[in-house]
Specification:
Layout: H1 18-37, H2 44-71, H3 74-77, H4 79-104, H5 111-143
Helix pairs in contact: 1-2, 1-5, 2-4, 4-5
Length: 144
Amino acid sequence: MIGHGLIVWNDDLVTGIAKIDEQHRILVNSINDANTRLTINSNAEMLEQISRDLLSYALYHFETEEELMHEYNYAETNSEDADAHLRQHREFSAKVVEVREGIKSGNLISREDLLTFLNGWLINHILKTDKRLAAFILAKSSLT
């Protein structure tokens, strides 16, 4: 699943929270689109646009997850998981900002490095961090 082929959406990536799953599908499609559009000779303009679009959608998505964490008091009972989750969001954003700054100064990230980072981060974040949050929300909402 990780590599530089396209990410194949499958049941392993489903969290069970419709809003999160829908946004994850959009992120997967965006990364797959970037994979298809980026060539070995990608120019700064294309990298800039792809990184801008991804960052903007990722921030929107992180906000959704963080609102759910707040709504379900995730940090109250799972403070370590909540902290790690927020930290991963911040680290992802910081990395994309770093890539964008590099592009602006003429230091273009390679297609391989960008896709390795995006694919690896998204898959690991969904499979580990987001699944824990979703299980917590699903358990809590079944109690109400």
